[in-house]
């Protein structure tokens, strides 16, 4: 599967941040560092690295602070089967939370997968973030279960919105 598609997704703009699909090795390095800081060092979900096989063909999305050019947020989306996509590794760097970085990363991810023909967009969400996703019109699917040794709720986006 190729990550290059012909459909252009317009960059989402906020006054402070730009949201974009990563397209260079340099950006990818910075992006993986954000994920490592959060999912390895902060949350201890992975002992050394959170990078896995899904990253090879995933769309990698970043939030960049306009005033400094600093990357401050990340999310990935990958295609599983048919037109089903999964979003994950949603992260806003420490010091950049509660300012709509996460919210707009999810909105940008939804637009990006829809542009690639996605008809079902899922995410494994930690319990403390279920409310955050519900506000973005995502719905829980089934019961809570263990994923990477921590409780998670499978949620599905309303692709009619956003
Ligand atoms: C989850 C995470 C990505 C959210 O990112 P964020 O940039 O802080 O998210 P937002 O600022 O968009 O929203 C956070 C909250 O602040 C509120 N908020 C943010 N800006 C606001 C504003 N201007 N006015 C009112 N409320 C605001 C949002 O409504 C949201 O509230 P909720 O949690 O009750 O829904 C971030 O906390 C994070 O990286 N956590 C660690 C990693 C993690 O847990 N990832 C998710 C795995 S499922």
Concise summary:
With 162 residues, the chain is of the alpha+beta class. It has helices spanning 25-42, 101-114, 130-135; strands at residues 12-13, 17-21, 59-65, 71-79, 84-92, 120-125, 139-140, 145-147, 150-156. Strands 1, 2, 3, 4, 5, 6, 7, 8 and 9 form a nine-stranded mixed sheet that branches.
Keywords, separated by commas or semicolons:
162 residues, alpha+beta, Aminopeptidase, 9-stranded mixed beta sheet, 3 helices, 23% helix, binds coenzyme A
**Low confidence ranges:** 1-10
Q: What is the strand content? A: 25-35%
Order of helices and strands: EEHEEEHEHEEE
CATH topology: Aminopeptidase
Relative helix content: 10-25%
Number of helices: 3
Give a structural overview.
This protein starts with 11 loop residues before the first strand and ends in a 6-residue tail after the last strand. It has helices at 25-42, 101-114, 130-135; strands at residues 12-13, 17-21, 59-65, 71-79, 84-92, 120-125, 139-140, 145-147, 150-156. The chain has a single domain, classed as 3-Layer(aba) Sandwich (Aminopeptidase). With 162 residues, it is α+β, with helices and mostly antiparallel strands.
Topology:
Elements: E1 12-13, E2 17-21, H1 25-42, E3 59-65, E4 71-79, E5 84-92, H2 101-114, E6 120-125, H3 130-135, E7 139-140, E8 145-147, E9 150-156
Parallel strand pairs: 5-6
Antiparallel strand pairs: 1-2, 2-3, 3-4, 4-5, 6-9, 7-9, 8-9
The structure holds coenzyme A.
Coenzyme A is lined by residues 38, 90-92, 97-103, 125-126, 129, 131-132, 135.
